Amino acid sequence: MMPNWHRIAAKALSHTLLMFDNFYDVEEKAKAGNEYAKQVMQSWADAEWFLNRPGAG
Question: Which of 26, 25, 56, 57 is nearest to 41 (CA)?
Answer without folding.
Answer: 26
